Amino acid sequence: MFKFFVLFICSYSGNIVIDIDVDVNFSEDGNLLELVREEYLITQKISNATFYLTVSEEDIAKYIFLEINFQYPKNGDVNFITTAGNNKLTSLQNSTIMADYADYNAYYLHKNYHSIVIPAHHFKLNDTLYITNLIRNDRRIYQYILKIRKLVEQPCPKNCSSPFGTCINGICQCNFNKIDLDCSIDAIALNLDQPLDNFTLQGSSYFYFQQETKLEKIQFSFGFQGNFYQDNVKVSLSYMFENFIYGVPIQINETCTLSKEAMKISRIIDISNLTYNANLQRFNRLLLKITTNQESLLQFEISEKPSDNSYNDAIQILITILISLACAFLTLIVGCAIQKCRAKRHRIISVIPQILSESQPYLTLEILQQCLQQAQKGNNQCSICQDQNNNMIQTPCFHTYHAQCLLNWFNNNQSYSCPNCRQVVDFEKIKLEQTKSIIFSRNINPSINQSSINLNQEQAQN
């Protein structure tokens, strides 16, 4: 059993409180104190105080909520961190705390209130939760009240410092001009394109920016107000995205100096990772902390910075417009070419009927020889006069005749039909095909040389 700590029961705020004195003799025999009550008053005189509690079956579906309220030291002067581990103790590796759960927000801000929420269903029956309270680099005595509660709904730290915030699913929705995980820190809202003028600052102040619509980058500017200036004003700038782990900025991002020569400083901050929070029904905030080494009259302003993609977007739009214009111009050229070809074809076709319409019904020997092919030399016999002669012509139906015999036949009959098979010889069709061939091969203009195909002249010569 534990031999070297004082244990007694007292009344504290109407609850039964177990008073534990943690000194060098605490758990000397190697055994740890099991926490079975809801509330303990602990006086810690050594750097490490470790306790444990065992998970029962009814605890599995509940949130285990650990809270520590310090009697002393005071807020802002506490060098302490609360950790918890499931079936394992907290350890240090190269000055890094290794634990399943830890209140880093309270640790970095030296708060007099620490809390840890262990989610429901994150442990099993008879699991052991080890709670370790570490005093860091401090030899003072710490006194605090440790509360252990098992809740059905997920709690918020310090109940969001009510009435300064509202707990929504374990996250505090802080009121206007309040920030941090428990809404315990005052902050000033910076609005887009609305400068904050005549702000007197010495020491540290917190600010926040909450976008109304999704932005990629902003420009944060700060400097002396108007003609006011001082030499060598050291300014520390810290900023972070609201992540509900660290609460507010704890790491200095940069330091700079304001002077008569440098009265204003601007920084581009990429806020594309600030997403919309469905629980809080707003965008997560950009949190800022400004610290100066001497009193100064300052001005702050946040404006939208066009993203790097804007230039690329403009180039893309320009390329799209140029391609569209090129396609339209090419379509116009092709359309004009097609229209020109159609007009040319129409002119050619319109000339041919005019030429053919001027022909007379009688044929000449020359026209007959022009329209019909010469028969191949061989044993050819004219079907009309029955004489053989090599100088013969051939009808489209492949019958051979003397040109004069066939001409007399055609002129003595009403239709131009073959004497043998009576197949009609369509001279207009033959002449049309020959005319097309001549026109397209010579690429002539609409004023066709009609003397080459004028049937009137041919007949006049007969």
UniProtKB/TrEMBL annotation:
InterPro entries, per database record? RING-type_E3_ligase_ATL, Znf_RING, Znf_RING/FYVE/PHD
Which residue ranges traverse the bilayer?
Answer: 314-338
> Which Pfam families did the record assign?
zf-RING_2
Question: Where does the signal sequence lie?
Answer: 1-16
Instruction: Provide the GO MF annotations for this entry.
Output: ubiquitin protein ligase activity; zinc ion binding
Keywords associated with the record: Membrane, Metal-binding, Signal, Transmembrane, Transmembrane helix, Zinc, Zinc-finger
Tell me which Gene Ontology terms the entry assigns under biological process: ubiquitin-dependent protein catabolic process
- Domain RING-type: start-end pairs: 382-422
Q: Which SUPFAM superfamilies match?
A: RING/U-box
Descriptive protein name: RING-type domain-containing protein
Source organism of this protein record: Paramecium tetraurelia
